[in-house]
Structure formats: structure tokens, C-alpha cells
Amino acid sequence: MKLRLVIIAFLGFFVFSCAGKSRRPDVYVPKIRIALLPLSNQSNELDAPEIVRDLMRKQLSDRNYEVVDLAQTDEILRENGISEGGQLGALTPQKLGEILKVEKLMYGDIIEYNFVNIGVYRNRVVELEFKLVDPSTGNILWKDEKKVSRKDVSLDKKSAR
């Protein structure tokens, strides 16, 4: 009887010690190297391209993309005659991929970027278009356009400030 309890205790200990976390390695998914190109700007807000591009960089980094440093991308583009997003059409996606050494290119266009603040009334309208391009083929892999509008009316002094 005593031997049976020892065997059961030993087997129980053995089973529970093996039931820990799996020792197999997690599946590795390599990061995709992407260049977030300068944005073209159709709005009247001169700072909009930098604001939106920085926000987009953060979003891409959170989604398994290795975003090439924006300053490095801009420097390489300047060396090839591109100083703003509206000039990107001068180079093919294949040429951009070659000089930037990336797997994907993200183009962007700011269609509208307005912020109105009149005392208690605030209205922000942002309309953007982005596309992801494979530089080896020049094919558009993904394209999206979004328009977001947010209106606020503050009825007390604290929130109006």
C-alpha cells in the first residue's frame, strides 16, 4: 500500500513537471524591411507630411515592419534628386527599391488636413491615401483611402481651454 502511494506520488510529480510551458521555439516571422517614403501634400498645412509620416512609422513598426530610418530614406532620396513626396513619380518603384534596399515601399498622399478651433467649437478633418508597393515588380499590393472628421463642442470653460 505504501509502495503504491509512493509510485502514484512519483508519477503525479513526473506528469505535472512535464506539463509546463512547451519547449519548442516560437515560429519566427522575419520583419519586412520597408521604406516609408515622403508624403505628397495637397493640404494647406505645411507640417502635415511630417506629422502623418511619423504616426504612420509608429503604426508600421507595431505591425512587424522594419521601417528604414526616415532621415536615412530622405538623405538617399535627396542624393537622387527627390526632396518631397510629389517628386517620387520621377523614379520607378524598381529604382526606389534598389537605392533604398527594401522589400516594400509605402507611398502616401495627404488629401486634406484641416484643424479649426473657434473657442468652444473644434473640428479636425484628415483625409489620407496610402499604397504599399512591391519594388521588385512595381505592383500595388494594398491601397486604402480614409477620411476622418471629428467635431467637438465644449460647453464649459475647463474643456474649452
Short description:
The chain has 161 residues and is an alpha/beta fold.
What report would you give on this structure?
- With 161 residues, the chain is of the alpha/beta class.
- Helices cover 33% and strands 32% of the residues.
- The chain is built from five helices and six strands.
- Strands 1, 2, 3, 4, 5 and 6 form a six-stranded mixed beta sheet that branches.
- β4 (104-118) and β5 form a beta hairpin.
- The chain is elongated, with a radius of gyration of 26 Å.
Notable features of this structure?
161 residues, alpha/beta, six-stranded mixed beta sheet, 33% helix, elongated
The global form is: elongated
Q: Secondary-structure element order, as H and E?
A: HEEHEHHEEEH
What fraction strand? 25-35%
Please give the radius of gyration in angstroms: 26 Å
As a percent range, the share of helical residues equals: 25-40%
SS-based class = alpha/beta
* Major sheet: 6 strands, mixed
Low-confidence stretches: 9-15
Distance between the termini: 79 Å
- What count of helical segments does DSSP give? 5
Q: Which whole number gives the mean pLDDT?
A: 84
Tally of DSSP β-strands: 6
Question: How are the SSEs ordered, and which strands pair?
Answer:
Blueprint: H1 2-18, E1 32-36, E2 40-41, H2 48-61, E3 65-67, H3 70-79, H4 93-100, E4 104-118, E5 121-133, E6 140-153, H5 157-160
Parallel strand pairs: 1-3, 1-4, 2-4
Antiparallel strand pairs: 4-5, 5-6
